């Protein structure tokens, strides 16, 4: 989504008042955004978001079936798209609930056209940053897990073949290069072979 022009940003909007939905759609369209779906309640908004996979979801807070904050919480949990909340209320409790629900932006009605684009663009940027951080966390966890497996496999080679730590590591690296396998895959193979040998002896 990086470097996207507003024309390609796909948005789902939800408000229980048809006239507000119409105004919002026209406003977003005039700013160059693509409104791909509309809903009158939070539950339908979630279903649309799952089906259409938009880049952003704009929800009114006060809606039947499921309010905007509850819907935002579910959407944030799924990591589908950033959520911007619209509300005629600016009470502290609502703002706190919205923050806890993982909302990426907040607009108090009536808002001006000039306020809409910055909130949308900031929400998109925050969501991209969050996704990048989540990917980095996963990569770090995988790297740590691989390191643990490599250390264990190295220990087995040292114990079984009487190798030094550096010799065990060099042997694993050679197997890795010769077979075009990652060090993690080599470590897993060594651990599995050792496990099978231990069972059969």
UniProtKB/TrEMBL annotation:
Domain ANTAR: start-end pairs: 130-191
Annotated Response regulatory domain residues: 10-124
Gene3D superfamilies: 3.40.50.2300, Winged helix-like DNA-binding domain superfamily/Winged helix DNA-binding domain
GO-annotated molecular function: RNA binding
Coiled-coil boundaries: none
Alphabetical GO biological process terms: phosphorelay signal transduction system
Any Pfam family matching the protein: ANTAR
Entry keyword set: Phosphoprotein
4-aspartylphosphate modifications at: 60
Domain of life: Bacteria
Range of residues in the leader sequence: none
Keyword flag Phosphoprotein: yes
UniProt protein name: Response regulator
